[in-house]
Write the structure tokens for this entry.
Amino acid sequence: MPVLVASDLDRTLIYSAAALGLTMPDAQAPRLLCVEVYESRPLSYMTETAAGLLTDLGDSAVFVPTTTRTREQYQRINLPGPPPKYAICANGGHLLVDGVSDPDWHARVTARLADECASLAEVRDHLARTADPLWVRKHRVAEDLFAYLVVERELLPEDWVKELAVWAENRGWTVSLQGRKIYAVPKPLTKSAAVYEVARRTGADLTLAAGDSLLDADLLLAAHRGWRPGHGELADSGWTAPAISALSERGVLAGERILREFLRAVNPAR
């Protein structure tokens, strides 16, 4: 039976320059591989060692990139190793099969959202009315499924995020603060639901997962084993669960450690 490995990408396996966390002396810093270019500029990286580990993982397991990114944002990423047959985008709103969104899956997701939570229009209107232009740089909608703000973190009032979370909770939505982005995501829109679907299609009897943010908690809980890095929302809140390993590594070296753990679990004799 194949092993399914579902991993978040940003700040789990790949890292922006600001998130690398290179605290060692410059001469001891790891060699980096650029895995994403945006507007002709390098944007995301992993260590060269991590790139080799991911290639090995792709050869020995069903590796499924599992991200809140839109399809367009995901398709900018050029990961090492064999191209994944499956990928999960928009926090589970799109299940890509050989790079193409499965229309039946997307229709099931959108029908569930319409039945179970407040509309995207209501959430967008609330964000527009309550977010202060002093600290908001961009209002964005992703795939007509969820909304997010790009903010100046140093100007963002902490109480505002807490108040938004309470407001959203009462309407069936979740709020997540990741770096400079505040996400508002419908609760039924989950990575775990899409991962269960991939497990069903592939016949996988073991699922491994990794992630760093609140939006990854359901993914980790759905796996037989999971790992979270020493940074991010989950680490900051002390979140854990019985089958979850909380790693001490932070930044890009956490991505390397996560891939080592995946490979050990896939090949215990390794």
User: Anything to note?
Assistant: The chain has a mean pLDDT of 96. DSSP finds nine helices and 15 strands in the chain. The longest strand covers residues 32-38.
